[in-house]
């Protein structure tokens, strides 16, 4: 009974005591700015007008190529634009050693068209190594011999 009274007293004390938060450090002093009762005129910022130059016949062309002997990365691309017609070509070496060449054109009238062709092996292709693996002989376990099961022995209770 004493335990219950002690527990209830502890619960009553903790629920009735105020929770006081202690600060971690000193706070900066509070500053108060005077209230300004003036009239400020609202002025809209001037509108920024940008002029975009329109090129009725846009033209560009670029070319790049990569030939990295350490990684075997060999590819090239060239593209040019004359008005609304884009023409280009790119090529690269595939894993089997052939070179894939793609010639493409794109225009509003015909859409995107590409012609893909392959050329013979350019890079050396390593021939696969043929390994002959001997078949594994199947192994069988001998059958497990089980002794005949004896009849269960029932012991009579001893009421000594």
Topology:
Layout: H1 2-16, E1 59-68, E2 73-82, E3 85-93, E4 98-107, E5 111-121
Antiparallel strand pairs: 1-2, 2-3, 3-4, 4-5
GO molecular function: structural constituent of cuticle
Signal peptide: 1-16
Pfam family, one: Chitin_bind_4
- The tally of beta strands, per DSSP, is 5
Shape assignment: flat
Mean pLDDT: 80
Q: H/E order of the elements? A: HEEEEE
Strand content: 25-35%
Our count of helices gives 1
Q: What is the rounded distance between the termini?
A: 48 Å
Q: Please tell me how large the radius of gyration is.
A: 45 Å
Query: How are the strands of the biggest sheet laid out side by side?
Result: 1-2-3-4-5
Share in helix? under 10%
- Major sheet size, sense and barrel closure: 5 strands, antiparallel
- Secondary structural class: mainly beta
Low-confidence stretches: none
Keywords: Cuticle, Signal
InterPro entries: Insect_cuticle, Insect_Cuticle_Struc_Prot
GO molecular function: structural constituent of cuticle
Give a concise summary:
This protein is mainly beta. The protein has a domain at 59-121.
Tell me about this structure.
This protein is 9% helix and 31% strand. The protein starts with a helix and ends in a 39-residue tail after the last strand. The chain has a domain at 59-121. The chain is built from 1 helix and 5 strands, in the order αβββββ. The model has no long low-confidence stretch (mean pLDDT 80). With 160 residues, the protein is mainly β. The protein has one helix spanning 2-16, and strands at 59-68, 73-82, 85-93, 98-107, 111-121. The protein has a 5-stranded antiparallel beta sheet with strand order 1-2-3-4-5, with no helix packed on it. Keywords: Cuticle, Signal. Residues 1-16 form the signal peptide. One of its GO terms (cellular component) is extracellular matrix. GO terms for molecular function: structural constituent of cuticle.
């Amino acid at each position: 009974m004493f335990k219950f009274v002690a527990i209830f007293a502890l619960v009553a004390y903790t629920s009735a005591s105020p929770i006081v938060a202690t600060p971690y450090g000193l706070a900066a002093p509070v500053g108060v700015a005077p209230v300004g009762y003036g009239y400020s005129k609202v002025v809209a910022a001037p509108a920024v007008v940008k002029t975009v130059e329109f090129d009725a016949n846009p033209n560009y062309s670029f070319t790049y190529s990569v030939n990295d002997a350490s990684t075997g990365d060999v590819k090239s691309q060239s593209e040019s634009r004359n008005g609304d017609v884009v023409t280009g070509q790119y090529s690269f070496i595939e894993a089997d050693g052939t070179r894939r060449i793609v010639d493409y054109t794109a225009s509003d009238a015909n859409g995107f068209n590409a012609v893909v062709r392959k050329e013979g092996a350019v890079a050396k292709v390593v021939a696969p190594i043929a390994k002959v693996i001997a078949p594994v002989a199947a192994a069988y376990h001998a059958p497990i011999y089980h002794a005949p099961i004896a009849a269960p022995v029932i012991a009579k209770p001893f009421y000594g």
